[in-house]
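Bit of a strange request maybe. I'm writing a small parser for structure token strings and I need a real example to test against, not something I typed by hand. Could someone generate the tokens for this chain?
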Amino acid sequence: MRQPLVIANWKMNGDSDTNRALLTALMGFLEAESAGGSDGPGGFGGSDCVVCPPYPYLDSVRQLIASSGIELGAQDCSHSESGAYTGEVAASMLADCGCGWVILGHSERRQYHGESDVLVAAKMSAAARAGLVPILCVGETREQREAGNEAKVVTAQLRGALADVAELDDIVVAYEPVWAIGTGLTATPELAQDMHKTIRAALAEIDEQGAKATRLLYGGSVKADNAAELFAQSDIDGALVGGASLDAEAFAAIVKAAQGRN
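Reply from user aminoacidic:
Good idea to test on real output. This should exercise your parser:
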């Protein structure tokens, strides 16, 4: 069975003091939950938990979560190994900082930085070379859904980003409907499951066995009060959490809901 996975995307939020307070509280909640239930391979009832802070705080967060069972990820990486790319951060640098995961192709990167599927594919390759697990984000806008093109858009993003991939070895796909990110709107569990099923079928065209093992996450205003219903769906293996990840108690409740999927 695919192990549940919950990822915190802090986006451009936090500072040294608030990060410390947030993580101290989060670790306290998660340790309490683990003490009250069965520990699995992920340390939190058999689920994995990853935190992705802004670049300047990677090392301090790494130190804060050491030995906690929480893993470290980054919010993006460059497509290049090194060179004259002012402001960019190489995947190998992230690995050197202790990251094991990296978010790629997030809708905010596509919207505000004009990232194409070709660029996301290059970043996927860079992440794999550095030994990072890429978290590939896909999702449609409200206009695309209202036009009935949501499946076409999402599968095109998948195929574009995975153009250089022959085997689905240790990647994660996060479905984030753009119309639900930060809006308070959430896809119904049934709607989300339908898209996750479509994604798994598209992945099977690349690697049938790998598609069965690939973890698919839902993102888009995931909260403690809707997480359990989402995770009850057969193809939803966890969540990529934005705003709620800045609230230790709320995020811990989402991790707890993921544990219930086992």
